[in-house]
């Protein structure tokens, strides 16, 4: 005669979606670690629970695409040219610099329109 002890009063088994099966290792500076630890303590939860809640609530911003980085470089170059025109306009007179200014203003409008078109298509 075999006696089986099947006590069913324990904690119910977790489903596979509820189980935490992944572990991550992270290196932190001392100041960062104690800051994280104190925030978890203030929240009244474990360090792991705190990190999980921060991950759930966080929002990651997309990096600039290569096209947008190119637009920024173009606008930066145009801004540099405008500064040079302003300096020359102060020295030589504003009437001589007007045509260059209008040309660069048109280029700025073109780049802004490219950015607007890209943002509408995304």
Secondary structure layout plus pairing:
Layout: H1 30-43, H2 47-57, H3 66-92, H4 94-121
Helix pairs in contact: 1-2, 3-4
Helix content: 55-70%
Shape: elongated
How many separate domains? 2
Order of helical and strand elements:
HHHH
Calculate Rg over CA atoms. Answer: 31 Å
Q: Care to count the β-strands?
A: 0
Note the total helix count: 4
Briefly note the structural class of the backbone: mainly alpha
Q: Sheet with the most strands? A: none
> What is the averaged pLDDT score?
84
Strand residue content: under 5%
Low-confidence stretches: none
N- to C-terminal distance: 73 Å
Key terms:
122 residues; mainly alpha; 2 domains; 4 helices; 66% helix; 0% strand; elongated
In short, what is this structure?
With 122 residues, the protein is mostly helical. It has 4 helices and no strands.
Structural write-up:
The protein has 122 residues and is an all-alpha fold. The protein has two domains: 28-60, no CATH class; 66-121. It has helices at 30-43, 47-57, 66-92, 94-121. The N and C termini lie far apart (73 Å).
